[in-house]
Design a protein that fits this description.
Blueprint (H helix, E strand, L loop, with lengths): L2 H28 L3 H5 L6 H10 L6 H13 L13 H6 L2 H28 L4 H15 L2 H15 L11 H31 L2 H8 L4 H26 L6 H6 L5 H10 L3 H29 L1 H12 L1
Helix pairs in contact: 1-14, 6-7, 6-9, 6-11, 7-9, 8-9, 9-11, 11-14, 13-14, 14-15
Length: 313
């Protein structure tokens, strides 16, 4: 991969992180005074003033912003108002639980979305195709939280097969992972089907058929690799959203991950924790996008050549 291309992506990623931090900083300060939320209504003005002075909230927004950027560069993400611990420590202790949910959901997404999309394209117009398209329509139409509630009503309240909330076993993981994974699988299946159909009608596929190349080899060696780039993009977006994309699902199933931490921290105006979570989500998206771009060059060398030519010009 062209080093200049990588450097350009890293610079853009850094600017994205800076804009994200700036936006969150402004919104959180404009949405309310943390001192009024963290302290009781009966707190004296002196106690409120002391709280604001302790956490640096009595300074101007510009001073707070510059101090925050300086601290981030030094690896200090602030201290949680609620726990009194470093914000990064509070966030990172929730990350493994969220990653467990996210990667399990991703496995379900890949296991359902890619094979069904390929089969729908290869058997276009048949019952497999119709079933897949019906699945994608349902996946896009039903909100995640509604599907989660339905699963809780059926498998927890009625059948009493699975726990409705919490963590601790594979049975706690099953419903939230299925809820999160099936919704994403609909998107992956749709993109996979469209991409494979587009490749199947390309001239090089007709040429391969005319040369007498066997059908299974044409599909495995020619069609699928060329159809992979749009699918990689969609899957990359899902991986990038592993930490922040499960906010609703974690709330519905009381899954103690980063998503639920973000919701609670926003309600409590725990500024340092919210900023650390958002920065972690943005960093994940930037890194995943960089990996996806690098994967493009591996899947299709023409993209690598194009990047080199663009860097020279």
């Amino acid at each position: 991969m062209n080093p200049q291309f990588v450097i350009t992506k890293l610079v853009r990623g850094t600017l994205t992180l800076l804009l994200t931090v700036t936006f969150v900083f402004i919104v959180l300060r404009a949405s309310g005074d943390p001192a009024q939320i963290m302290l009781s209504d009966e707190a004296s003005p002196a106690a409120v003033a002391a709280f604001r002075e302790r956490w640096g909230l009595d300074r101007s927004y510009i001073e707070q912003y510059l101090a925050y950027l300086t601290a981030i560069i030094q690896g200090d993400f602030g201290t949680s108002f609620r726990d009194g611990r470093p914000a990064l420590e509070v966030v990172m202790e929730r990350v493994p639980v969220t990653l467990l949910l996210g990667f399990t959901a991703l496995l379900i997404t890949l296991a359902l979305g890619i094979p069904s999309g390929i089969m729908a394209a290869l058997f276009r117009g048949r019952w497999v195709d119709h079933a897949t398209m019906s699945f994608t329509i349902l996946g896009h139409s039903i909100p995640n939280f509604f599907l989660g509630i339905i699963l809780i009503l059926v498998f927890s309240m009625t059948l009493r097969w699975l726990p409705s909330s919490g963590t601790g076993s594979i049975w706690h993981l099953l419903m939230p992972a299925v809820t999160l994974g099936t919704a994403a699988a609909a998107t992956v299946a749709r993109f996979t089907r469209s991409s494979v159909l587009d490749v199947l009608h390309q001239p090089f596929m007709r040429t391969a058929k005319a040369k007498g190349i066997p059908y299974d080899r044409r599909i495995l060696r020619h069609a699928l690799p060329n159809a992979a780039i749009p699918v990689v993009t969609v899957v990359g977006m899902r991986i990038g959203g592993l930490i922040g994309g499960a906010v609703t699902i974690e709330t519905v199933f009381a899954w103690p991950g980063v998503g639920m931490l973000l919701v609670n921290s926003v309600n409590q105006r725990d500024l340092a924790v919210v900023q650390a979570v958002v920065l972690l989500i943005a960093l994940t998206m930037v890194l995943v996008n960089l990996i996806v771009d690098l994967t493009y060059g591996w899947l299709d060398p023409r993209i690598e050549l194009h990047n080199r030519r663009a860097a020279k010009t």
